[in-house]
């Protein structure tokens, strides 16, 4: 399989990437559920009902596996799109990605704010977009440092645009719990895949 930058990734490493990302998705969703869905756990803590708590952990793990699959589909879809973009737009492809990053961040703030029925403040939506941008900038910087400078914009594009697209089902829910429960494993899984891929490509075995 061809990966980031067109280098070959052995099928053995693809399988490793799939299962490791799957486990990360399940684990991070369970951890996030303790914060986002704490009231669900509280029902069974006094008195402690280990069977019900275990059931919740299994449910959130399964949900995390689904989020992980969404992340992986988005990642490999982007690897394909990136190759097409490079072959079709050539030197203009980074510029197009920068424009799409800006549009995505604007949409993440404006359309979410306009979609709220009540007259709430726009600040929380700005804060989310800024946090995503700063985090993605840091991860893209790490990617560029470990590979090459030209990897910065594609990595930033992936972390912002692709993550936001993957997050759309969560953003469309009425309550905010599902959105927060979804974004945590998506960001962690996307970060992991982005930063681990070049290491898998460099492996000989």
Question: Could you please describe the fold and organization of this structure?
Answer:
It is a single chain. This protein is mainly α. It has one domain (4-202). 80% of the residues lie in helices and 0% in strands. The protein is built from seven helices and no strands. The protein has helices at 11-36, 38-42, 50-89, 93-114, 123-146, 152-171, 176-202. Helix 1 (11-36) packs antiparallel against helix 7 and helix 4 runs parallel beside helix 6 (152-171). The longest helix has 40 residues, at 50-89. Mean pLDDT is 89; it is low at 1-6.
Write a short abstract of this structure.
The protein has 205 residues and is mainly alpha-helical. It has helices at residues 11-36, 38-42, 50-89, 93-114, 123-146, 152-171, 176-202.
Mean pLDDT: 89
Order of helices and strands: HHHHHHH
Number of strands: 0
Shape: globular
Low-confidence runs of at least 5 consecutive residues: 1-6
Number of discrete domains: 1
Straight-line N-to-C gap: 15 Å
Structural class: mainly alpha
Rg measurement, Å: 19 Å
* Number of DSSP helical runs: 7
**In percent, how helical is the residue content?**
over 70%
Strand content: under 5%
The largest pleated sheet is described as:
none
Transmembrane segments: 17-36, 56-79, 91-110, 122-140, 152-172, 178-197
InterPro entries: KinB-signalling_activ (IPR024164)
Protein name: KinB signaling pathway activation protein
Organism: Saliterribacillus persicus
């Amino acid at each position: 399989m061809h990966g980031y930058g067109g280098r070959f990734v052995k099928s053995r490493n693809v399988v490793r990437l799939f299962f490791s990302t799957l486990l990360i998705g399940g684990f991070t969703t369970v951890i996030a559920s303790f914060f986002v869905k704490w009231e669900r756990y509280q029902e069974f803590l006094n008195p402690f009902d280990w069977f019900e708590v275990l059931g919740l952990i299994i449910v959130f793990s399964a949900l995390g596996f689904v989020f992980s699959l969404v992340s992986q589909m988005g990642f490999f879809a982007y690897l394909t799109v990136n190759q097409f973009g490079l072959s079709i737009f050539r030197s203009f492809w980074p510029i197009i990605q920068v424009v799409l990053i800006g549009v995505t961040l604007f949409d993440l703030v404006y359309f979410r704010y306009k979609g709220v029925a009540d007259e709430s403040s726009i600040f929380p939506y700005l804060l989310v977009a800024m946090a995503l941008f700063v985090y993605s900038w840091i991860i893209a910087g790490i990617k560029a440092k470990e590979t090459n400078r030209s990897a910065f914009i594609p990595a930033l594009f992936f972390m912002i645009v692709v993550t936001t697209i993957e997050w759309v089902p969560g953003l469309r829910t009425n309550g905010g719990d599902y959105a927060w429960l979804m974004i945590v494993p998506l960001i962690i899984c996307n970060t992991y895949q982005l930063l681990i891929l070049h290491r898998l490509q460099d492996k000989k075995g």
